[in-house]
Design a protein that fits this description.
230 residues, 7 helices, 20% strand, globular
Length: 230
Protein backbone atom coordinates (compact mmCIF):
# COMPACT_ATOMS: atom_id res chain seq x y z
CA UNK A 1 0.00 0.00 0.00
CA UNK A 2 1.38 3.41 -0.92
CA UNK A 3 1.34 6.46 1.31
CA UNK A 4 0.76 10.13 0.58
CA UNK A 5 4.47 10.64 0.01
CA UNK A 6 5.11 7.56 -2.13
CA UNK A 7 3.58 6.32 -5.32
CA UNK A 8 3.61 3.43 -7.75
CA UNK A 9 4.75 4.02 -11.31
CA UNK A 10 4.57 2.17 -14.56
CA UNK A 11 6.47 3.03 -17.73
CA UNK A 12 7.31 1.07 -20.83
CA UNK A 13 10.76 -0.46 -20.23
CA UNK A 14 13.68 0.28 -22.51
CA UNK A 15 12.38 3.61 -23.80
CA UNK A 16 14.12 6.98 -23.48
CA UNK A 17 12.59 9.10 -20.76
CA UNK A 18 14.13 12.48 -21.51
CA UNK A 19 11.51 15.11 -22.23
CA UNK A 20 11.50 18.87 -22.64
CA UNK A 21 7.82 19.01 -21.68
CA UNK A 22 5.99 16.71 -19.27
CA UNK A 23 2.20 16.84 -19.49
CA UNK A 24 0.31 15.46 -16.53
CA UNK A 25 -3.29 14.25 -16.77
CA UNK A 26 -4.75 13.94 -13.26
CA UNK A 27 -7.56 11.38 -13.13
CA UNK A 28 -10.06 9.97 -10.66
CA UNK A 29 -12.42 7.18 -11.79
CA UNK A 30 -11.97 7.89 -15.51
CA UNK A 31 -11.84 4.32 -16.83
CA UNK A 32 -14.29 5.08 -19.66
CA UNK A 33 -12.60 8.18 -21.13
CA UNK A 34 -8.93 7.77 -20.26
CA UNK A 35 -7.80 5.56 -23.13
CA UNK A 36 -9.36 7.64 -25.91
CA UNK A 37 -8.05 10.91 -24.44
CA UNK A 38 -4.49 9.65 -24.00
CA UNK A 39 -4.42 8.22 -27.52
CA UNK A 40 -5.67 11.56 -28.90
CA UNK A 41 -3.06 13.54 -27.00
CA UNK A 42 -0.26 11.11 -27.82
CA UNK A 43 -1.09 11.25 -31.54
CA UNK A 44 -1.16 15.06 -31.51
CA UNK A 45 2.17 15.28 -29.72
CA UNK A 46 3.80 12.68 -31.98
CA UNK A 47 2.61 14.32 -35.21
CA UNK A 48 3.36 18.02 -34.82
CA UNK A 49 4.45 19.07 -31.32
CA UNK A 50 7.93 20.61 -31.78
CA UNK A 51 9.46 19.51 -28.45
CA UNK A 52 10.23 16.11 -26.94
CA UNK A 53 7.36 15.32 -24.61
CA UNK A 54 6.13 12.85 -22.03
CA UNK A 55 2.56 12.16 -20.90
CA UNK A 56 2.12 11.16 -17.27
CA UNK A 57 -1.24 9.82 -16.11
CA UNK A 58 -1.65 10.63 -12.41
CA UNK A 59 -4.27 8.37 -10.84
CA UNK A 60 -5.72 9.95 -7.69
CA UNK A 61 -6.81 6.87 -5.72
CA UNK A 62 -9.40 5.73 -8.26
CA UNK A 63 -11.77 3.01 -7.14
CA UNK A 64 -12.64 1.72 -10.63
CA UNK A 65 -10.34 0.30 -13.35
CA UNK A 66 -8.59 3.60 -14.09
CA UNK A 67 -5.22 2.39 -12.80
CA UNK A 68 -5.41 -0.78 -14.89
CA UNK A 69 -6.17 1.32 -17.98
CA UNK A 70 -3.29 3.66 -17.14
CA UNK A 71 -0.85 0.76 -16.76
CA UNK A 72 -1.95 -0.66 -20.12
CA UNK A 73 -1.45 2.71 -21.84
CA UNK A 74 2.01 3.08 -20.31
CA UNK A 75 2.96 -0.35 -21.61
CA UNK A 76 1.50 0.33 -25.05
CA UNK A 77 2.57 3.89 -25.92
CA UNK A 78 6.09 5.35 -26.01
CA UNK A 79 6.69 8.22 -23.60
CA UNK A 80 3.52 7.55 -21.64
CA UNK A 81 4.00 7.00 -17.91
CA UNK A 82 1.51 6.24 -15.16
CA UNK A 83 1.61 7.18 -11.49
CA UNK A 84 -0.78 5.95 -8.79
CA UNK A 85 -1.40 7.68 -5.45
CA UNK A 86 -3.54 6.41 -2.63
CA UNK A 87 -5.03 9.81 -1.75
CA UNK A 88 -7.29 12.04 -3.82
CA UNK A 89 -6.46 15.59 -4.82
CA UNK A 90 -5.51 17.10 -8.16
CA UNK A 91 -3.09 19.47 -6.48
CA UNK A 92 -1.49 16.62 -4.54
CA UNK A 93 -0.93 14.69 -7.76
CA UNK A 94 0.51 17.66 -9.62
CA UNK A 95 2.87 18.57 -6.81
CA UNK A 96 4.18 15.03 -6.57
CA UNK A 97 4.71 14.46 -10.29
CA UNK A 98 5.97 17.94 -11.10
CA UNK A 99 8.51 17.93 -8.26
CA UNK A 100 9.85 14.57 -9.47
CA UNK A 101 10.02 15.60 -13.13
CA UNK A 102 13.28 15.99 -15.06
CA UNK A 103 11.61 18.00 -17.85
CA UNK A 104 12.29 21.69 -18.50
CA UNK A 105 8.57 22.53 -18.52
CA UNK A 106 5.77 20.80 -16.62
CA UNK A 107 2.14 21.14 -17.64
CA UNK A 108 -1.27 19.66 -17.01
CA UNK A 109 -4.61 19.34 -18.73
CA UNK A 110 -7.96 17.85 -17.83
CA UNK A 111 -8.65 14.30 -18.99
CA UNK A 112 -11.59 15.34 -21.17
CA UNK A 113 -9.18 17.39 -23.36
CA UNK A 114 -11.87 20.05 -23.51
CA UNK A 115 -9.27 22.67 -24.43
CA UNK A 116 -8.31 22.66 -28.10
CA UNK A 117 -4.91 20.97 -28.39
CA UNK A 118 -3.84 23.62 -30.89
CA UNK A 119 -3.25 25.86 -27.85
CA UNK A 120 -0.65 23.54 -26.35
CA UNK A 121 2.36 24.79 -28.32
CA UNK A 122 1.48 28.47 -27.68
CA UNK A 123 1.11 27.60 -23.99
CA UNK A 124 4.58 26.09 -23.77
CA UNK A 125 6.51 28.33 -26.16
CA UNK A 126 6.91 31.41 -23.90
CA UNK A 127 8.28 29.20 -21.13
CA UNK A 128 10.86 27.50 -23.31
CA UNK A 129 11.94 30.83 -24.82
CA UNK A 130 12.32 32.35 -21.36
CA UNK A 131 9.70 35.02 -22.04
CA UNK A 132 7.45 33.84 -19.19
CA UNK A 133 7.57 31.75 -16.03
CA UNK A 134 4.03 30.33 -16.05
CA UNK A 135 1.42 30.06 -18.78
CA UNK A 136 -2.31 29.56 -18.38
CA UNK A 137 -5.17 28.92 -20.75
CA UNK A 138 -7.94 31.46 -20.42
CA UNK A 139 -11.58 31.12 -21.41
CA UNK A 140 -12.44 34.65 -20.34
CA UNK A 141 -10.88 36.98 -22.90
CA UNK A 142 -12.47 38.31 -26.10
CA UNK A 143 -10.04 36.19 -28.13
CA UNK A 144 -11.22 32.97 -26.46
CA UNK A 145 -13.81 30.89 -28.29
CA UNK A 146 -15.85 29.09 -25.66
CA UNK A 147 -19.37 27.71 -25.52
CA UNK A 148 -20.40 26.63 -22.04
CA UNK A 149 -23.55 26.32 -20.00
CA UNK A 150 -24.85 29.53 -18.48
CA UNK A 151 -24.32 28.34 -14.90
CA UNK A 152 -20.70 27.30 -15.46
CA UNK A 153 -19.97 30.55 -17.27
CA UNK A 154 -21.55 32.61 -14.49
CA UNK A 155 -19.75 30.69 -11.73
CA UNK A 156 -16.37 30.97 -13.44
CA UNK A 157 -16.68 34.68 -14.06
CA UNK A 158 -17.89 35.36 -10.51
CA UNK A 159 -15.02 33.40 -9.00
CA UNK A 160 -12.45 35.30 -11.01
CA UNK A 161 -14.10 38.64 -10.18
CA UNK A 162 -13.84 37.74 -6.49
CA UNK A 163 -10.15 36.99 -6.92
CA UNK A 164 -9.62 40.32 -8.63
CA UNK A 165 -11.55 42.23 -5.97
CA UNK A 166 -10.26 40.53 -2.83
CA UNK A 167 -6.77 39.33 -3.71
CA UNK A 168 -5.83 41.73 -6.49
CA UNK A 169 -5.40 38.95 -9.04
CA UNK A 170 -4.18 40.24 -12.40
CA UNK A 171 -4.74 37.02 -14.37
CA UNK A 172 -8.10 36.42 -16.04
CA UNK A 173 -8.86 32.72 -15.46
CA UNK A 174 -7.62 30.85 -12.39
CA UNK A 175 -9.41 27.54 -12.89
CA UNK A 176 -8.93 26.62 -16.55
CA UNK A 177 -7.47 23.09 -16.53
CA UNK A 178 -4.69 23.96 -18.94
CA UNK A 179 -1.46 25.29 -17.42
CA UNK A 180 2.30 25.04 -17.78
CA UNK A 181 5.20 26.09 -15.55
CA UNK A 182 8.95 26.26 -15.98
CA UNK A 183 10.35 23.41 -13.91
CA UNK A 184 12.67 25.67 -11.93
CA UNK A 185 9.71 27.84 -10.97
CA UNK A 186 7.67 24.78 -9.99
CA UNK A 187 10.50 23.59 -7.76
CA UNK A 188 10.46 26.93 -5.93
CA UNK A 189 6.70 27.42 -5.59
CA UNK A 190 5.21 23.96 -5.08
CA UNK A 191 6.65 23.26 -1.61
CA UNK A 192 4.95 26.43 -0.36
CA UNK A 193 1.47 25.57 -1.69
CA UNK A 194 -0.83 24.23 1.02
CA UNK A 195 -4.03 23.32 -0.84
CA UNK A 196 -4.01 19.93 -2.57
CA UNK A 197 -7.44 20.09 -4.13
CA UNK A 198 -9.61 22.65 -5.91
CA UNK A 199 -7.76 25.82 -4.85
CA UNK A 200 -4.34 24.52 -5.89
CA UNK A 201 -4.40 26.51 -9.15
CA UNK A 202 -5.40 29.74 -7.44
CA UNK A 203 -2.72 29.42 -4.79
CA UNK A 204 -0.08 28.65 -7.43
CA UNK A 205 -0.99 31.71 -9.48
CA UNK A 206 -1.24 34.08 -6.53
CA UNK A 207 2.16 32.95 -5.24
CA UNK A 208 3.61 33.48 -8.70
CA UNK A 209 2.07 36.95 -9.02
CA UNK A 210 3.25 38.04 -5.57
CA UNK A 211 6.74 36.74 -6.37
CA UNK A 212 6.88 38.98 -9.42
CA UNK A 213 6.90 36.10 -11.89
CA UNK A 214 5.67 36.53 -15.45
CA UNK A 215 2.35 34.84 -16.27
CA UNK A 216 1.45 34.40 -19.94
CA UNK A 217 -2.21 33.98 -20.90
CA UNK A 218 -3.23 31.96 -23.94
CA UNK A 219 -6.82 32.33 -25.21
CA UNK A 220 -8.31 28.89 -25.73
CA UNK A 221 -11.10 27.31 -27.66
CA UNK A 222 -13.15 24.61 -25.98
CA UNK A 223 -14.66 21.67 -27.83
CA UNK A 224 -14.01 20.23 -31.26
CA UNK A 225 -10.87 18.66 -32.64
CA UNK A 226 -7.82 20.81 -33.08
CA UNK A 227 -5.79 21.19 -36.30
CA UNK A 228 -3.11 19.03 -34.62
CA UNK A 229 -5.48 16.09 -34.86
CA UNK A 230 -6.69 16.51 -38.42
Amino acid sequence: MTTASTFATHARPGLPTTAVVEIVIPVYNEEEDLSESVHRLHAALSDTFPWASRITIADNASTDQTWAVAERLAAELPQVHAVHMDQKGRGRALKQVWLASDADVVAYMDVDLSTDLAALAPLVAPLISGHSDLAIGTRLTPASRVTRGALREFTSRCYNLILHGTLGARFSDAQCGFKAVRASVAQALLPVIEDTNWFFDTELLMLAQRSGLRIAEVPVQLGGRSPLER
